[in-house]
Specification:
This protein is an alpha/beta fold. It has one domain: HybD-like (Rossmann fold). 38% of the residues lie in helices and 24% in strands. Strands 2-1-3-5-4 form a 5-stranded mixed beta sheet. Helix 1 (20-30) crosses helix 4. It is globular.
Length: 164
């Protein structure tokens, strides 16, 4: 069945801001706007997640990154995988995991990758002030992204039904 939304927050929960995906997943799972959404937290992306990815209409990955400024985030929509055979490992990137889902199960969901800028990657299970401050906006952005996707998908379905 391909009509679900999957959010995967990932990173090392014992390396301060690298654990942001875990903190975001915890808040997203409790947010009533995401009722019916599957939210999971993982230390890293592994091949075992390919089945879950293949069963979703939308997958949102949330991770810490050195790219954006500390406490800010970017949202990138992944393009459909090229279908190029890749050597699989026990650690995957979002695009490699989606490509694995396509390769194994023939399904490619819409995919958004949210990267949140880090301030600290030291040892500890608490986020930096900047990362903590980014969470409310991040949670709102994910909820909005999911709502927009559902609206767009419903519009597409109605249009197809009218032509039938």
């Amino acid at each position: 069945m391909i009509d679900s939304v999957l959010v995967i927050g990932y990173g090392n929960s014992l390396r301060t801001d690298d654990g942001l995906g875990w903190h975001a997943a915890e808040r997203l799972a409790a947010d009533p706007r995401l009722a019916g959404t599957t939210v999971i937290a993982r230390h890293q992306l592994t091949p075992e997640l390919a089945l879950d990815v293949s069963r979703a209409a939308l997958v949102v990955f949330v991770d810490a990154s050195h790219g954006p400024a500390a406490g800010t985030f970017t949202i990138e929509w992944l393009q459909a995988p090229a279908g190029i055979a890749t050597g699989w490992s026990h650690i995957l990137s979002p695009s490699s995991l989606v490509d694995l889902a396509r390769e194994l199960y023939g399904q490619v969901p819409d995919v958004a990758v949210i990267r949140v800028g880090v301030e600290s990657l030291g040892f500890g299970d608490q986020l930096s002030a900047a990362a903590e401050a980014s969470l409310p906006g991040l949670i709102d952005a994910v909820a909005e992204l999911i709502a927009d996707h559902a609206e767009t998908h419903a519009t597409r379905t109605v249009a197809v039904d009218r032509r039938a």
